[in-house]
């Protein structure tokens, strides 16, 4: 069974004549260790799809199953726990807390989940070493470059050992060199650490790092193909 199974996902905002269909019966499956790039013009439903896959929003129709759990069947508390433990989120603007160090930011999901401070920081430190930030554990976000901040965000997304990483324009705020580095790191997340990665991007070059490219248009999938990996 696929790690992620989305079936006939439909999301409609509003009612009657003013209703807008953001997603129109989209079905998508993602395997463990697979890296999928989602592309398409602005307003095509990319972010809506990501939000539904991550349980941040509920579909008007259809369902999402993550690692055997149907999100629609979960209570709000159970859904929160699933998001915290099974899904890691990476955003365009990093969303790091400015008063916390890289280590404290990366440890935050574990701290919020009740893990003891020492254990949380030990695991966060391990992930920061893996993303090549072992020398910057004590640095605050304003002391790091954009690419380094995104590495902290990726370590934070991985620290709870989730099976799925959802990345919304993770290179959109970076220069071309840092974008390549982050795309390569997400490739590593899939290849070496076995996580499924679903990444929304406008950047065709960044999408080349993925195993598969899914193109949305007017809320529907119009292309879904496997690609040769870079490197």
Task: Report on this structure.
- The chain has a domain at about 35-45 and about 80-225: P-loop containing nucleotide triphosphate hydrolases (Rossmann fold), CATH 3.40.50.300.
- The chain is of the alpha/beta class.
- Helices cover about 35% and strands about 25% of the residues.
- Strand 1 (about 5-15) and strand 2 (about 20-30) form a beta hairpin.
- The chain has seven helices and ten strands.
- Helix 5 packs parallel to helix 6.
DSSP strand tally: 10
Pairing-aware structural class of the strands and helices?
alpha/beta
Report the end-to-end length measured between terminal Cα atoms.
Answer: 29 Å
Largest sheet: 6 strands, mixed
What share of the residues lie within helices? 25-40%
């Amino acid at each position: 069974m696929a790690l992620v199974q989305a079936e006939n996902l439909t999301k409609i905002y509003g009612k009657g004549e003013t209703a807008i269909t953001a997603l129109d019966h989209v079905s998508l499956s993602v395997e463990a260790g697979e890296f999928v790039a989602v592309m398409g013009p602005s307003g095509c439903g990319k972010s809506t799809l990501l939000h539904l896959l991550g349980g941040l929003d509920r579909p008007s129709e259809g369902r999402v199953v993550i690692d055997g759990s149907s999100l629609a069947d979960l209570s709000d508390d159970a859904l929160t726990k699933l998001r915290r433990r099974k899904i890691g989120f990476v955003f365009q603007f990093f969303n790091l807390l400015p008063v916390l160090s890289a280590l404290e930011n990366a440890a935050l999901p574990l701290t919020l989940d009740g893990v003891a401070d020492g254990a949380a920081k030990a695991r966060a430190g391990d992930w920061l070493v893996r993303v090549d930030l072992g020398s910057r554990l004590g640095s605050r976000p304003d002391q790091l470059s954009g690419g380094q901040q995104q590495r902290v965000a990726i370590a934070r997304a991985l620290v709870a050992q989730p099976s799925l990483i959802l990345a919304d324009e993770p290179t959109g705020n970076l220069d071309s060199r840092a974008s390549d580095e982050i795309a390569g790191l997400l490739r590593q997340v899939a290849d070496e650490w076995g996580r499924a990665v679903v990444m929304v991007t406008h950047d065709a070059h960044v999408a080349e790092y993925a195993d598969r490219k899914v193109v949305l248009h007017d809320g529907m999938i119009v292309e879904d193909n496997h690609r040769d990996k870079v490197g």
